[in-house]
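Now produce a polypeptide, keeping tokens residue-aligned:
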Amino acid sequence: MTDEIKQFFKAYWRTGMKAGCTENIPKEMMVSAPNSEGSYEWKLIPGVLTNEDCKNVETQFNITFPENFIAWHKRYFFEDCDCSIIRLPFSSPTKPLQEIIDNLEWCIAEQLIPLGLIPFANEGNNAGPLVFDTRNASGKEDFPIRVYDHEYGGDLDGLSEIIFSSFRKMLTCLTRFLTEI
């Protein structure tokens, strides 16, 4: 998975990417001083999350993330991960798991998690969260990914067909998409 992670971030991150909040951002992540509007250029920096950090979130919400999702999220700290068609959770150095936690604390997530559906990202047109479907999982290696239409408020009728067979496949497809645009 390491190679797919490296290839994804190589395709995603571009010189000149900007973020808007400088509060508690390490200087080594900032490529430029904030401009008059407060935004600054940023760069990827090596992540320092541990498996234990991720395990604590899994325990808190009684869920299991695919191992390759954890490996991807731990690889770097990054201020944004909006790929246009999919908005993946970013990993801020000051609160690296906060975006994931926010996805899991959402009222619809509270209804989906007991059903084996784990929200982890958002669909690019705001239809709703992307979820790992753990209902028929035989292990922790990887899970199929579906979109959940938030308009259904927790009802399974809002669940799409499988859009990616795994997180690994999604990264491969996103890398190709980002390279082609």
